[in-house]
């Protein structure tokens, strides 16, 4: 029997200079006090892409006119009954960020240990996601 999982997304936003990634500093659980990517739950009657753009706009003020998102991967967390949709994109130019719930910060990519579980959510997944994107950009010469 196939279960219907709750769909959630995370959106990885790179600064126009390519040197920083946008993260929120969680002010509540899950991941209270840790940095994480922005994202949230998919609502009924919206596509996965629509949910990612909506959550990005609600949490940061970044609109679909500011960034083009690419679907990186989807993974199912069977124990939690969650399907996680991961998107990423680079801003074309700087935008004025608007924080919804959690303070937003540009975190430098170089020199940051994204696997440090005392600072970052995701049990090392954040580091893995950033590395996948960077390797892909290098292969494509971006």
Structure overview:
This protein is an alpha+beta fold and 142 residues long. The chain has 2 helices and 7 strands. It has helices spanning 48-60, 125-140; strands spanning 6-14, 20-25, 35-36, 38-41, 70-77, 82-90, 104-108. The strands form 2 sheets. It has a 4-stranded mixed beta sheet, covered by helices on one side. A hairpin with a 4-residue loop joins strand 5 and strand 6 (82-90). The longest helix is centred in the last third of the chain and has 16 residues, at 125-140. It is globular and about 40 Å long. The model has no long low-confidence stretch (mean pLDDT 94).
The span between the termini is 43 Å
Question: What class would the helix/strand composition place it in?
Answer: alpha+beta
Return residue spans where pLDDT drops below 50 for at least 5 consecutive residues: none
Topology pattern, helix = H, strand = E? EEEEHEEEH
Shape type = globular
Strands, count = 7
Helix count, per DSSP? 2
Strand order of the largest sheet: 4-1-6-5
- Helix amount: 10-25%
Let me know the average pLDDT: 94
Task: Tell me the β content.
Answer: 25-35%
- Rg from Cα: 15 Å
The profile of the biggest β sheet is:
4 strands, mixed
Short account of what is shown:
The protein is α+β, with helices and mostly antiparallel strands.
């Amino acid at each position: 029997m196939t279960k219907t999982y709750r769909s959630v997304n995370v959106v990885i936003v790179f600064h126009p200079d390519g040197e920083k990634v946008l993260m929120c500093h969680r002010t509540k659980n899950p991941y209270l006090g840790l940095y994480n990517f922005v994202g949230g739950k998919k609502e009924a009657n919206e596509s996965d892409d629509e949910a990612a753009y909506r959550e990005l706009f609600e949490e940061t003020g970044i609109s679909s006119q500011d960034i083009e998102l690419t679907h990186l991967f989807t993974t199912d967390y069977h124990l939690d009954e969650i399907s996680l949709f991961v998107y990423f994109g680079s801003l074309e130019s700087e935008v004025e960020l608007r924080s919804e719930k959690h303070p937003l910060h540009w975190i430098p990519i170089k020199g940051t240990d994204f696997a440090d579980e005392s600072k970052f959510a995701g049990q090392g997944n954040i580091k893995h996601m950033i590395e996948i994107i960077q390797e892909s950009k290098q292969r494509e010469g971006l």
